[in-house]
Amino acid sequence: MEGNPIGEINLLAVFLGALAFFVVGMIWYGVLFGKTWQREVGLTEEQIAGGNMPVIFGLCFLFELLIALTLGHQFARSDPSTRGIMMISTGYALGLMIPATGINYLFQRCSGKLFAIDAGHFLFGMAAMGAVFVWLR
Questions:
Q1: Is residue 108 one of the residues assigned to a domain?
Q2: pLDDT tens across 19-47, in order?
Q3: What is the pTM assigned to this prediction?
Q4: Has UniProt tagged this entry with the keyword Membrane (predicted)?
């Protein structure tokens, strides 16, 4: 690693990890909690249908790529064990993403139900991303 200060980032794992997070989101906000989430955020069917879904999904995937790249960089620098990869992945969700969402939701007066749905998505999405990094280790 002396020649490369950031280590060797596994770009395939970054891409597939982001894809895994995206798929978790499709399932989470689709079949599992879609209607409840929609009700909690106050979106009508017309508003959902009227959204620019290619832009929304595209930006969502780009954000997930950024998260995966950050995780990939962390793994390239620290070379964690399999257990460490999963602890770091879920730790990002439990220690950063979920608390940050909670802070915003408190000031926005969002419901606890919405927080639980979104927090669960972050936790399971990051676990899926971590599993991809383990698989492609």
A1: yes
A2: 999 999 999 999 999 999 999 999 999 99
A3: 0.92
A4: yes
